[in-house]
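The following block was generated as part of the benchmark described in Methods. Ligand: zinc ion.
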Amino acid sequence: MHEEIGSYLENMKTSPARLTDEALLAEVKRLAQCERETTATLIAHLVEVEARELFHAEGCSSMFKYCSEVLHFSEHATYLRLRAARAARRHPRILDELASGALNLSSIEILEPHLTSENYGELLGASRHKSKREVEKLVRSRFPQEDVPTVVRKLPEKVMALEAAAADASVGPTAAPVQPACTSEGKPTLIAAPPVRRPSVIAPLATERYKVQFTASEALHDKLRRAQDLLRHRIPDGDVAQVFELAVTLLVEKLEKQKFAATDRPRAAREGLNSPRAGGRTIPAEVKRAVWKRDGSQCTFIGKSGRRCTETGFLEFHHVDAFGHGGKAMIENIALRCRSHNQYESRIEFGMHQEDRGQIEFRLYEEERARTKAAGVNRTPGG
Ligand SMILES: [Zn+2]
């Protein structure tokens, strides 16, 4: 089998295969310690990258994008590291605990929302060398109310009602086992779902096919049944996937019309596309439509390394020459930017005071929450 092992192993000073059992075990321990220390060091550096907002200049709308798309961490690895970074910013001692192996990233993920300047010393101490399950238990015992929101009690009834209804109406969850959830971007939410809540799932089944699974409210269930009835002539078997596709298509069309003034039948521009109404700050609908189309519904910020921001959510119309500096609302002066890059460029343009770290942290946190919420998806607790 060693012939199949790649050049990385061949280039190692000492191949694991040549070590004695004793030396092999000692080396594994040493490497595990190295990995912990490297992770702690990396997280300390990520804190600084985020504080300086360097991810913006690299063409990323958030630290999450930077870690997953530029550093090539998996979404979950990114999530855990950013949670630890947030905890470390407020409580740097966490990095010592991480480096020593007393706490791992999963434990920090569980502890992070509960840490305060008053309790962190005691809470970290009580969690040292505990398994993830033990830390979860510890947190549940200390913060029972936070972990058992009122909605949790009612949810199982609704799930059961939905499943019962689904049995005779081909509506509702599939029989597939519940899996850890990912959003459309594969990104876990920042809030762990309550323990009894069924995680939502969007998982690729094959190229261009996805399994979507989520917990529906009673209202949504009723609306879905109604939509199936109204669509019987077009979708006789009430196929949920087709009904949802149609529903989401209509929703997207409606939202695009609101946000980007998109329309199938654009009115002729009264004064021409490049002649904005005199002096107005308002961007004419025809300019928005043209810009949206030209920019492909994606942020057009280009980072220093030439990387274009991949953000397709939180898009805003950005004045390339700022309105405050006389920039006009014309096609060549308007571009799509994600909110993050729009604000970043405003700060550069107008030399606004940089937000303090707490504000940046809060904004990114809120944006990620909103993004995952918008995807309508949760993840299982922990992981
Ligand atoms: Zn962007």
